Amino acid sequence: MSEDPRAISSSAAAAGAADEFTEIREIHALNPPQAPTSRGRTRDPWELASHRSTSLSVGSEVENFTSMSREFNAMVVAGSNLQIDTTAADGSSNLGRIGEDVLEETNPLAIVPDTNPPFPSPRRPFPSSSSVTDEVSVHRVKKDEVNAKILAWQGAEIAKVNNRFKRVDVTINGWESEQIERSTALFKKIERKLEEKRARAMEKMQNDVARAHRKAEDKRASAEAKRGMKVARVLEVANLLRAVGRAPSKRSFF
Fold first, then answer.
1. If you count DSSP H runs as helices and E runs as strands, how many of each does the chain have, helices first?
2. What pLDDT was estimated at residue 85?
3. Is 223 helix (H, G, I), strand (E, B) or coil?
């Protein structure tokens, strides 16, 4: 055979160490091809010689293939004992145990297993109950955190508004108190002025009343004096007429 058994064994060992699951193949020796028998015909000497050489070559190939199969089986058993995460260096050390060296493959016709098998398409694992519970708890924690931040912001904003309102309320109360004090002071001032005017008016009224009383008394006294004088004169004239015995005339003396 033209294939190198050591190259095949080394390539298969590297493939078995690299693959996650090692595939074990059993290789059995092929039966040697039966030489066609020709009945009723004698063979020529050159046919016998060629048949003998063919049988010898087939026998040698079968022996080589059998030895290669044993070595390959030993290599596969050694590679299967390795762990899944071993590297190509570990495979070469295992080959050293069985007396093989890692050689570079140069025969293009050698059957070399694919060391890079196609990866299966990733499938999305079904979420388990624990993962779903964890996701729900994480989502709930995030939601609670957002709600806590919203509540904190709301409280801070309301506190700012309340503090601003308190400051404005204090300012308004101060302005109101100032206006009330100013109005009260003005009213008291006007009231004092009115009291003074009232006092002056009362005094003037009292003076006027006293003056009127005095004038009235004077006028009454003067009129009373005039009345007394006239009554006395009438009495005097009446006494005179009575003394003379003369009747008074219709024309008044006054």
1. 4, 0
2. 47
3. helix
Taking the domains of the chain in order of start, what are their residue ranges? Answer: 5-32+45-97
Type of residue at 117 = P
> By C-alpha distance, which of 20, 4, 8, 18 is closest to 73?
8
Query: Is 59:32 a contact under the CB 8 Å cutoff?
Result: yes
Whether 79 and 94 have beta carbons less than 8 Å apart is answered as yes
Cα torsion for 195, 201, 207, 211, to the nearest 10°? -160
pLDDT band at 137 (very low <50, low <70, confident <90, very high): confident
Q: Tell me the pLDDT tens digit for each residue of 13-58.
A: 444 544 444 445 555 555 554 544 444 445 554 454 444 445 444 4
Per-residue pLDDT reduced to its tens digit, 68-90 = 667 777 676 666 655 444 555 55
| Percent of the chain's residues with pLDDT above 90 | 37
Q: Is 3 within 8 Å of 40 (Cβ atoms)? A: no
CA geometry: angle 61, 64, 65, nearest 5 deg? 85
Residue 89's nearest CA partner among 73, 102, 76 is: 102
Q: How many CA atoms lie within 13 A of 39 on its CB side?
A: 0
Q: How far is CA 76 from CA 7, 13, 106, 137, in A?
A: 14, 7, 22, 49
Residue type, 122: P
Contact 7, 63 (CB under 8 A): no
Say if pTM beats, i.e. exceeds, 0.85. Answer: no
Q: What angle do CA 118, 119, 121 make, to 5 degrees?
A: 120
CA neighbours within 13 Å on the CB side: how many for 133? 3
Which tokens sit at 67? 């030895």
Read off the tokens for 188: 């008291």
